[in-house]
Amino acid sequence: RDYKVTGVQTCALPISGSVVHSEVSEISPVQVEVKVQVPWERIRKDLDLTFSRVAKTAKIKGFRPGKVPRDVVRKVYGAQVRAEVASGLIEAGLMHAVETHDLHIVAQPEVSPPPLFDEVDYEFTAKLEVRPKVESVDTSKLVVKVRPSTVEEGAIDAEIERMRKQHADLREPDPMRPAQDGDRLTIAYTVAVEGEEKPELEASSREVDLGDDELLEGFATGLRGLSVGEEKDIEITFPEDHPNPDLKGKAAVFHVKLESLRELLLPELDDEFAQDVGSFETFEALRADLRKKLEDLATRRRDAEMKDKLIDALIETNDIPVPPSLVKEEKRGMLYQMMQFAQMMGRQISPSDFDDLDGKATRRVKAGILLGALARLEKLEVDDAAIDAKLAEMAESTGKNLAKLRVEYQGERRDQLQSQVLEEKLFAVLRDRATIEESTEAAEATE
């Protein structure tokens, strides 16, 4: 969409007996042009004050400090003083224009300072990038689909099986036999990707559990039936969504040697097993505890998914422009976080990490503007009582002393908690007004 000037706001401000006049014209919802006019009376006073200050410290050959005639000071320091006064006038004029016209600027103004002449009003023009004015936020059409938070019996069974494997005993089969699902194998291998040897991918004495979902299907298939000491070439094709961009969709040959094989002796699923893995009297008590934990996890996952989809629906329903400088700043912050995370995890940043970074940054900026506008329009505030209630909730859930929490959450941490409480209020509003639908398709799309 092309934007044109939609109108002109004008304002005249008295300053020390003079009047500064400003006009604001909208170029687009995120950019305005400010025209400021400063009368000569104000300029003359600023020039006189600045020349007087400079004269007190001016060092000019043939004159003692502070005794330099005014006309000499003006001749020597005229250009410097005029530039300094012009800079001050621009700063003061813009400040008054911003405050008077309620402009929410988000970047440094673009100004080309004109020269300053005697007996002439000073006029300058600046372009300002501003936060868009959001007069309303439509929350009447929000529809989101989220996965159900119910926990299937199979999920509990899978978690119990994982715990069972963790507490299994390992032994060599007697007599020794070929590898089969459920065995723990120790293997060594070299790798060639599309005919090129990849020394950085080879490994020795690596343990793998045959049948584990983390193993590539073709690789697992090749290991089945292998005997200790046997070597084999296993051909696979890396998936298109492989995290390493250099391997996506490429064919590889693994030359594998099976070094050792042990089978897992799984414990019986009884009360004794429950007592071994935790402080549970019975196996049913263990199963009930696992159910609660998985249900809590599913609820948190559903809430996080709902939050993301509510934001997406809010943005889709309320199309707003965004200031480019805010997107640029957000993108810079995301890159910094990405580098910090990569450094912490000890991995290299891959090209895929930069996929749609502009789009993600734009989404964040839009979300921030819309949520801020919604908080203003709904008159949502966080007072001391709300902070105290949140601290009491935290004390109850963590078992920490409430008085100690109050001491811990001062200054910046209290500000962060205030933002968190405000965010919770905002999403409560969105949840109440949105149509929430549960769908297994939402789960598949998210995964």
Outline:
The protein has helices at 40-57, 70-100, 153-166, 217-223, 271-277, 283-317, 324-345, 357-377, 384-398, 402-408, 412-433, 440-446, and strands at 8-15, 18-28, 31-38, 110-111, 122-129, 143-146, 169-171, 183-193, 196-197, 203-209, 231-237, 251-265, 435-438.
Characterization of this structure:
With 447 residues, the chain is an alpha+beta fold. 46% of the residues lie in helices and 20% in strands. The protein is built from 12 helices and 13 strands. Strands 7, 8, 9, 10, 11 and 12 form a 6-stranded antiparallel sheet that branches. Strands 1-2-3-5-4 form a 5-stranded antiparallel sheet. A hairpin with a 2-residue loop joins strand 8 (183-193) and strand 9. Helix 1 packs across helix 2.
Helix content: 40-55%
Number of helices: 12
What string gives the helices and strands in order? EEEHHEEEHEEEEHEEHHHHHHHEH
Radius of gyration equals 35 Å
Mean pLDDT: 87
Sequence stretches where pLDDT stays below 50 over 5 or more residues: 1-17, 443-447
The biggest beta sheet is recorded as: 6 strands, antiparallel
Give the DSSP E fraction (strand runs of 2 or more residues).
Answer: 15-25%
Number of strands: 13
Distance between the termini: 36 Å
Shape: elongated
Which class best fits the helix and strand makeup? Answer: alpha+beta
Question: Which terms would index this structure?
Answer:
447 residues, five-stranded antiparallel beta sheet, elongated, disordered N terminus
